[in-house]
Structure formats: structure tokens, C-alpha cells
Amino acid sequence: MSADNDQQAREQLIDLAAQFYDQFELGEIPHMSVPTRTKNNIEYDEEKAVWVYGDRESTRSANSVRGARKLLKAVYTIEFLADQLEADRSSTLRELYYLSESWDNEEAQFSDQDESNGLIEDLEIVSGVTREDFHMRPEESGATLMGPLHLREQTRRGEREIHCQKDVGEGGYQIPNNPDTIDFLDCDADFILAVETGGMRDRLVENGFDDEYNALIVHLKGQPARATRRITKRLHDELDLPVTVFTDGDPWSYRIYGSVAYGSIKSAHLSEYLATPEAQFIGIQPADIVEYDLPTDPLSDSDINALESELEDPRFQTDYWEEQIELQLDLGKKSEQQALASHGLDFVTETYLPERLTEMGVF
Amino acid sequence: MTSFQSTLGDEPGIAEELAESQQSISIAEFFEKNKHMLGFDSGARGLVTAVKEAVDNALDAAEEAGILPDIYVEIQEAGDYYRLIVEDNGPGLTKDSLPKVFGKLLYGSRFHAREQSRGQQGIGISAAVLYSQLTSGKPAKITSRTQGSSEAQYFELIVDTDNNEPEISVEETTTWDRPHGTRIELEMEANMRARGQLHDYIKHTAVVNPHARLELREPQEHFKFERATDQLPAETEEIRPHPHGVELGTVMKMLAATDSQTVSGFVQEEFTRVGKKTADSIIDAFRDRYYGREMCWRTPRGLDDIDIKGVASNATANKSVAATGAFSDKIASKVADKDRIAHHQLLDIVNESAQECEQEHDETFGDTVQENVAEAIWLEVIDASGADDANAATGEDGDSRLVADLYDLADDATSTRKDDETIHAFADRLAGKFEDLEDDRHRLTRATLREFVDRAADLTEEYDEVSFGETARENVVEAVWDVMATVPDDPPLVRELNGDRDATSDLVDAMRATDIMAPPTRCLSPISEDLITAGLEKEFDADFYASATRDAGVSGGDPFIVEAGIAYGGELPAEGTAEVMRFANRVPLVYQRGACATTDVVKTIGWRNYGLDQPGGSGLPNGPVVIMIHVASTNVPFTSESKDAIANVPEIEDEIELAIREAARELKSYLNKRRSMQKRRKKQNVLGKILPEMATKVAEVTGRDEPDIDDAIARIMNNVLVERQTKANGDGQAVSVVVENNSSTNESLEITDIVSAEPTNLSDGATVVEMDGEWFVKWEPEVGSDDEATLEYEVPDDATFDLDVKGVESEKLTVKQ
Q: Which of A339, B72, B301, B531 has its CA 20 to 30 A from that of B130?
């Protein structure tokens, strides 16, 4: 990332502080409006084909003691972020939370990490600068990537050129926090296969699926981090690779697909930057449970609630998903990716994936 | 057989012996032995009561004469005794009346007056004189000077208890520095243990008499209570008694004394709220009781084989056929017009018809003819004519008309469960009672009717073995009484009534039974809400005052008004229970708090609803509160002669409760407001810390100077912001004072800007007053919610300012200058 970029992010933060300053000067009550971040306030952006926030806004205003505290914390955080950018340092969300303890003003300290996380999201939205550009990282390091891709990464210790099959071990290439520091050099892959669980990712690597089918296997590690979604988006946009998502067959996994394809509710302001609307869902589909006669677990109450809530989720209101979710509610069952092993260890690479991918038109 | 009576008779002399030792006692002697009844039960209490009686008299006297009372009370130690001196600036007393006022019990102007006053019986001050002479043996020393006279009268006197007359030992003229007034000096055995009550009495008197100046000097302390108002209480007007509030004895006395000839005149003249119409209602009710009503029997119908016309013409003798026919026709048709008819109504009809025929046929139908005709018809109506006797004897089932009539009435009036047989048997017996009446006009009072019904019912119960209960009997009486008619007889004249106890009792009953408008209230003098507040403000340094004056009510014929006041906070002691001040006719009640209706009411109110602490949810509330209750009436119902506590009369208790609640509602909204102000202050404190810090930080981050945040804070707090801006303008400066109302309500402000130089070009609505080289710019804008108002003026360059804003709570106000 360039110093220019940092400078711009810093200016945008300071503009925000200046906005409060002007509000004071005009005798207005200092305030800041942000879109309401709930399922009810996201809408489909036809042009960009992603889900973004709607018109509903919540106002953080100094009108109340609570609101005033929030704004005070925001100003302190702006100062911290601006300083961090100037010093070209970075920190994690958790560090920010602990760091607030060192601030001279007790009123400005965070009471829990949800509060500081929420505030960073607010600032991202209001300033239009991403968290990564603030040099804020999540705790967990990014996920991994394995496949025929040659790239150059800008690290703090200089540039590194890496081939994601030949230069890495079985663990694969570690996706950095800010994938925008990567340049793609060369790519032999035909498509991207994003996998939810570590076990399945290892199975595919062990079976040499990436080699055999020229697949770029991206490990999602549950709900994918922003970096994972960003690199997937860049690979799709810049290298024109089709994206497929392979998860468990339960409501939580559908949401993983949802956040890759449509963007998540929490980061709908970044949908354009993170979501890959063309991503396709492989499975496990509820229909697969029947077709492949997979071993199942019964749906729990919370599973059923989650499925029903997905039926109301605007992101899942398509014929395909409505049909699948209704079917699953009828079956009352769910299946994991690993359940495919009931037909043998190679069943997934030799039968299931090729069949599904052909069906989807990726091959 | 030996009886006690006969034994007594055997020894003449014992009765005489006993009689010898029996003698009448004077009222003065009686109270000499029963001092406690008048509040002189102990030395401590005696002193307080004496002060109270003297001060009450003084206040009454001054007010009556339209003088603002100025009363001086002094208590001195005089050897073993205490000397009490009370001086007033009243109109003074004449030489003749003075000894009686102070030296004769039950002498006064108030006892017979229906008008609000402190004293009522004419006992108080003479009782104090009596107490003083009993305990110290010294006479009362009284000086009085009437307005305009050059000298004052001086008396030393005691009460001669044997005959309740004043006994004057010294009588002389003297000089006195007061232009008019009365001074009494009493020496008595006493002590100052009740000092607290004494102080309370004087202080409380000052509260409810804000127009009076009071001074109390006692051996240890000296108080002065100045006037809070120069406005005398409205003069009260004496009213005549209300018909609902008089006793039999009173009415008998009034009948003896009245100039009126007729009862109608008497009730209109002597009572309040009785006009012609009400008098008529009273007299109707009186007739019912005195003469009774006459039974109205059903008039003959088609089914009956009574031929009124035939009967009438048979009874008419010696008249032409045409006239007789016309006469009887008229009677028959008039009778047929009525459903029921009473004897006197029949007489009227006959008389009317006779007069009509006289005109038409020129034949006289004299009294005898009329009487005969009426008699004949009436006998038919009550089924008592000789012709029917034969019928009755022969026909077993031929019931008399009366039975059938009474049967229908009783059947409607009693429950459906009674079978026809029973009702029929009862109606038969009741009809028998009517037939047995000597007076065949069937005239009887309700009491007699009740006797008849009881008798018939008793017999029915006895012979037919059915029950005929109280309710059924009462219902039958009611039904029969309803169809009976009030008689037209003139009520007795007043002179006939005079001395006739039973008839007078009928009259009193009649007055009570008649609906009469409540008595007028001009005889009352409430303190008024404003003056209650003024009185409380004068004696209690509190944060909040509320008061309420209710509309007048009536209890036992006497009108009354209840008022309440509440003081809260400030210097009132926050610990312990509320102080309850009780007043009756502007006199503080100091003793027997627990026995008083006012205290009972205060205890039953749920004070928590009004924002006060009340342990257990009942009883006296806790906290810095004074609750004041004033009951004004022409006759305050006290629990005893010593007038310490108001009796539990429901009508008065209800009004006391409503008055207190009315004032308490204001207290509640005050407390709520205070709480919200506290909350606002807390918020302001927190924001007052956070926002400047935020401003500092924002300035740091943006690298600018610290922003001005007063406006923002005023807005956040929904405050009223008053800001002065100045601008150089040639030689001088242009000043503008801007009021910005950020609150949700309209605000009225009083703004005073004190300027050291003369302001010019003042904008509209403001005024300038110069005082000692300073100019006071006064401006009282009314600024709506979210609105602004501006005051502008110009002053020389070197002027200094001082801005003072009133009319807005300090919590809601931000002033910038």
C-alpha cells in the first residue's frame, strides 16, 4: 500500500473530526449518522449486483449522555488511528480495545470489545475508508490458498514472488491482511474452489484435486475473513476465474456462501469491494442429501430458526434458495462435507465434485 | 302488701328534708367545678386557654369594627402567679356592657348569630376571669376606651358565681395612650410548661390572620408577627337559620317570637332559602303530617253498577227537572273524568257543578242540597249506602269496592310470591279498618295508615299462617299513601301552633322532608388561597407553597368551607413527620390533635402518590412539610366545649380530604418538576465534562483552536440561552441580547441589563430606568419553543454590563456575556 493511500485515509479521518468541530462552532449538537446495520436495512444494488445498506440511519448524537460518550470515544479513536497511520504502524481490533485503557480520559475508554469493533465499523462507513486502510487487523490471520497461481506480495520486509503450488508447503499460501498489496503475475488455474472446513481442504490437497483440475483451492475457515473475500473477488475480477463455494449442508454454511457472494450484513458498506455475486454454490445441497444418500443429523431448533430467518433474508430470496431451504425444512436433516466419506475417501474428488461442477457448467 | 311507696308516705318529712337541700346552681358555679370542660384543666393549659380566649375576642372585636387588628400579649411572672395582659386596638366596650362581657358567663353577641366568628358561646373570656379569680383571688383589671371618647374606663371585677353576674370592685375613668381598644390584665396560678403550645397558638394565629399584627412577650422570649396584608377578611353577613338545621325547641321559640300570622309567612320570614314555592312544599308536607291525607277511591266504572247520575238526581230535592238533570249530569261526567277521587275532591266537584247550574238555570243549589248529594255519592263510592247493605248481606262473594281497590294496590306492591288468597284476606281486613273509621272521609296520617296495615297484616299472619314481612308492609303503606291526596284545609295559624308541641313537631318534620337549597355562604369568611399562601410564606421559610379553597358545603343546616395549604422544603425540618396545623374559624387548634377529624383525614391520604414519604403507606407523611387545614362554619362541630378538635362529620371530612388533595396535587407537580430538574442537572454535569473534553480533542486532532461549545450545550440541554453580543459601531458599540429558547415550552423571561452608560436606540418592548449612575435596561420577552428574540441598543465604547435573567429555572438557563 502506498503512502499516498495512508495520507488519504488519514485526511478522511481528520475531516470527520473537523465535522464535529464545525458542528460545535455552529452551535449545533455534534452528531454522526450511520446506516442501521440490520437485516432489515440492506437492499439489492441492481447496478453492482451486491447487497448494500438501505436508507435507514442511526444517529450518534451528543444529545444524550450515552451518545456524547460514544462521540468522545470516536474522537479519541480518530486521533489514535490518525497517529497510527502517520507512524505507519498497525494494530489489531483487540489491541485497540486494550489500548483505550491507556487513554487519559476514563469516559473515552471502551467497556468491551464489541463497542470498539462497532466503532471501527462506524468510522469505516462514515469516512469511506476501509479498516485495512486504517491499518486495523483482525486477530486471526487470514486463510490459505493453494493452486497454480504466481504472485508478488509487498511485505514490510520487501517484495516476495511466490508460486502458490510450487513455493509453498502443504499448508498453502497465507493470504495477507491486506490482499491489495498483492500483484498477480501468472495464473494457470481454471476456477476457484472455496472450501469451508480445514478437513475437506486437506482432503482435496491430499487427493491432488488442485493439480488434476487446475483448481485454486481457497480455505474459508468458517465465516471468511475480509482478506479471504477480497482476494477471491480480485481473482474473479482480474483473472476472470469462476468462483465456486463448497460448504456443509446446514443453514450456517449457507450464510458463509451468502457472505462470499452477496456480502455480509455487518460489512454491507464494503459489498462492492468484497462480494463476488457470480460465486456459485456447490453444496452440500439439501437435494444432495437425498441424491447421494448421505448420513445426516436432525435439524436442531436453532437450525430451524436459522433456516426460517434465511427465508426472510433478502439475500436468499431467490427461487433456488427458497426451494433448497424448504426442502431441508421438509427433510428435517443436515449433512457435513465429510459425510461424503461414507462412500469412500476419494468419492468427493472422483465423483461428487466432478458431477456437481459439470452440472454447474464450470467444466 | 307493703310497698315502698306506702312506706314513704308513712313518714312525711323525708321528701321535704331532701327538698330543702336541693337548690338551683348558677352556670358560673357549674363551670367553677368543671373547669376542664372549658380548657382550664391545669395551670399550663389554663394560661394557653386564657391567651387564646382573649386573643380570639380581640380579633373578633377589631374585625367586626373594620379595624386591622393589632394585638399585644404579655405574660409576666408575678410572685407565685403569672400575670397575663392582652391589649387590642378594637372598638372598645361601653361602660354598661363591659362588666357583663367579662364578668358574666354566656353573655355575648355571637350565640344566636348564624355567622362565622371565632367566639360562639360567650363563655371564653369570662371563664378566664373566673379561673383567674379562683386561683389567685384577684380581680380582673380591665381598661377600655371607645373610639372618639377622651377618657378610658377602668374596672376591677370578678364573677359572682352565685348568680352569674359581674361584681365590680373598682370603677373609675382613666387615661390610656391607645385611641381605642381594650386591655385586660389577669393574674392566675399557672406555669409555662405549655410554652410550645403557646408559641404554636400565636404563630398559627399569625398564619391564618395575615391581616393582624401580633406581639407576644413572655418572660423568656419575645415574638413579633407583622402583617402580610392590609386587606381585612370580607365582612360576613348574618343569615337566618336553614330549615334543615333547626331543632324542635328552637322552632317553638321562634314561633313564640315571630310577627308572622301564617305558617307560610313564618317559614319565609324566619328561615333562609325559603320562598313562596318552598313554603308551599313545606306546608303540603306539614298538612300531610298534621291533618293526614284523604283516601282516593276508584271512581265507579262501567263494570260497577253504580249510577252516579241517578244517585245525584235522587238526592236532589225540590229542583226543576231540567236543572236536576243538568246538575247530576255535570257531576257524573266530572267524577268519571277522574281515576280516583277523595272526599274533598268530590265536594269540590259538587260545588263547582252547583255553581255552574246556578248560572245556567237560575236555580240555587244550596249548601244542604250539595251536602246531601255529596254524601249520597260518597257512600256509593265507599260502598256504604244502605241499599248495598242488603246486597252485602246476601251476596257472599260480593266484596265491597274498597276490598277490590285495596287488593289491586296490595297485589302490585307486594312480591308475586304471595298468593291471591293471602292478598285478598289482607285487603279485606285493611278495607275493614277503613270502614270502621268514624270519619267517613277516610282521612288519616301516614302513621295511622301504618297502624292499619300492621293490624291487617298481623291478623293475616295469625289466621292464614303466612308471613307478611316488614318490606311488604312498608310497600303497601307506600302504595296506598301515594294514591291518597293532600287535603286542602288551611294550615293552623302561627298563634294556634304556638305552644302545640305535636303540631310544631309535624312542622319540623315537614321542613326536614322538603328539598331546600343549601344555605348561602356570605355568612362565611374563608381566608382565600392567596392569603393562605401569604400566611404560610410569612411564617415558614419553604421552597414551595400551595393552597386550595373549596366551595361551600352544608352540614346540619350550617354552611361550611374547607381550605388547605401546604408548605414544602426550604428551612422546614426534613426529619420526622409533617406538621399539621388545624384551624376552625381562623382559630388555631392546639390540643387533642389525635381526636380531630382533620388529622384523621390527613392520615388516610396516600401521600406516596403525591411524592411524599409515608412509612407503611398510611399515617402522617414524613419530610419537610407543613399541612394546614381551615374549617370555617357558622357552627363548627367541636368534640367538646373547650373547642380543641373538630368532630368526625362525614360531609366535613369529605371536603377536608378534597381540599388537601387539591393542594397536594400542586405539590406533586412541583416535586416531579424538581426531580426532572435534578435529572437535568445530573445530565448537565456529565455532559459539562464530556463535551469540553471532546471539543479539546477535536481541536487537537484538527489542529485548530478550541471551539465554542456553549450554544451546543444550551441546545443539548434544551436550555434557554441568553447571549450578549457587542459590535463596534462608530464611537460606541451596538449591543444585542439574544434569547434563544431551545426548550419544548414557551418561556417568559425578565431580563435586566445593568449598563454603566446611558443606552440609546433601544429596540421595542424594553424600558430604561436610571438609578445612581447606572441604567437598568428592563426587557420581558416571551419566547416560544425553538424561537428567538433580540434586544438591541447602543452605548458608548467604555460601557460595562451586568446581565441578570429571571423567570427561567437556573438549571434551564445558560447566560453568556
A: B72
Q: Give the pLDDT confidence of B479-515 residue by residue, as tens digits.
A: 999 989 988 888 888 888 888 888 899 998 898 888 8
Same domain, B264 and B339: no
Q: At B168, is the pLDDT very low, low, confident or very high (cuts 50, 70, 90)? A: confident
Domain membership flag for residue B7 = no
> How close, in Å, is residue B609 to chain A by CA atoms?
29
User: Is A76 in contact with A104 (CB distance < 8 Å)?
Assistant: no
Burial class (CB in 10 A: 0-12, 13-18, 19+), B771: exposed
- pLDDT for B393 beyond 50: no
ipTM: 0.74
Exposed (0-12), middle (13-18) or buried (19+): which is A67, by Cβ within 10 Å? buried
Provide the shortest C-alpha distance from residue A74 to chain B (in Å): 9
B128 membership: H or E segment, kind and range: helix B124-136
Cβ of residue A360 closer than 8 Å to a chain B Cβ = no
The pLDDT-based confidence of B798 (bands split at 50, 70, 90) is: confident
Residue B792 DSSP SS3: strand
pLDDT of B215 > 90? The answer is yes
Chain A residues with CB-CB distance to B708 below 8 A: 24-25
Q: What is the DSSP string of A168-211?
A: S-TT-EEPPS-GGGEEEEEE--SEEEEES-HHHHHHHHHTTHHH
User: B698 and A17 in contact by Cβ < 8 A?
Assistant: yes
Cβ atoms B749, B780 nearer than 8 A = yes
- Name the band, by pLDDT with cuts 50, 70 and 90, for residue B72: very high
Instruction: Give the number of domains in chain B.
Output: 6
Concerning whether A98 is annotated as a catalytic residue, the answer is yes
Instruction: Answer whether A66 touches B (CB < 8 Å).
Output: no
User: What is A3-137's CATH number, 1.10.10.10, 2.160.10.10, 3.40.50.300, 3.40.50.1000?
Assistant: 1.10.10.10
Distances (CA, A) of B430 to A60, A243, A328, B405, B609: 92, 113, 93, 11, 61
Say which DSSP state B760 is in.
Answer: B
Is A69's Cβ below 8 Å from some Cβ in B?
Answer: yes
pLDDT of amino acid B122: 59
Give the domain extent around B740.
711-816
Nearest by CB: A62 against B691, B699, B711: B691
Do B298 and B275 share a structural domain?
A: no
Q: Decide if B797 is inside a domain.
A: yes
Question: Under an 8 A CB cutoff, do B689 and A72 touch?
Answer: no
CATH code, B257: 1.10.8
Indicate whether B138 and B221 sit together in one domain.
yes
Q: Would you call B715 an interface residue with chain A, using a CB distance cutoff of 8 Å?
A: yes
Residue in B83, B76, B109, B45 with CA at minimum distance from that of residue B184: B83
Distance, in Å, from the CA atom of B732 to the CA atom of B728, rounded to the nearest integer, reads 6
Q: Does the annotation flag B120 for ligand binding? A: yes
Query: Looking at the domain A144-360, which fold is it?
Result: Dna Topoisomerase Vi A Subunit; Chain: A, domain 2 (3.40.1360)
B701:A14 CB<8 A? yes
Tell me the nearest-neighbour CA distance from A29 into chain B, angstroms: 5
CA distance A81 to chain B (A): 11
Q: How many CB atoms lie within 10 A of CB A348?
A: 23
Contacts of B551 (CB under 8 A, 6+ apart): B561
Catalytic one among A21, A98, A173, A292? A98
Mean of the per-residue pLDDT values for chain B?
A: 84
Put simply, the answer to whether A24 touches B707 (Cβ < 8 Å) is yes
- Determine whether the annotation assigns residue B500 to a binding site: no
What are the residue ranges in chain A where pLDDT is below 70?
A: 1-3, 140-142
Q: Which of A239, A307, A316, A228 is nearest to A275 (CA)?
A: A228
Any idea where the domains of chain A sit in the sequence? 3-137, 144-360
Contacts of B684 in chain A (CB under 8 A): none
